[in-house]
Specification:
By secondary structure, the protein is mostly helical. The protein is built from 6 helices and no strands.
Amino acid sequence: MNRLFNTLFVMAFAAAMTITSAVAQQDKDTNGTAMSAKHSAGTTVADKTFVKKAAAGGLAEVELGQLATQKASSEDVKKFGQRMVDDHSKANDQLKQVAAQEHIDLPTEPNAKDKATKARLEKLSGEQFDRAYMRDMVKDHRTDVAEFAHEAKMGKDPAVKSFAESTLPTLRDHLKEAEKIAPTQKKASAKNEPSGQ
């Protein structure tokens, strides 16, 4: 009788330990899943797309800005190009931190459209370059301001949304400056063209 009791006790103890272990594992899984779901729920597909597009665009702004500092004939265009290099390099570094935090892989070069723009601008020089570059900068920054404003308002990931909000004033300033410089480039080229054409 004593042996039977001992056997039953051991079996009951083993069963209790198995159940306790299973419950603990289930709790761990639930918490782990909840934590990862909570983290990834913040970053939507739209947020990730915005980050990748912003990164590629930022790289392009730096490359085109460097080109402007080398090829522009107007001092205003050269200064604007340098500002693009400085401001967008800083924004790119901030975006890298956000992407690392949110586990988003960033592009390492501009997209095909921006590469084509650079190739086209590389063939130009002097006032032709100035006009084409500033026209592109106005167009690009209008798009950038719209996209960053949308993300700042509609973004779901707090870190991405905060990046868009903090970068937006600089982009608006770039646009304002680009719109101011672009018309002066048209006037300068019109003045230098021979009359009667």
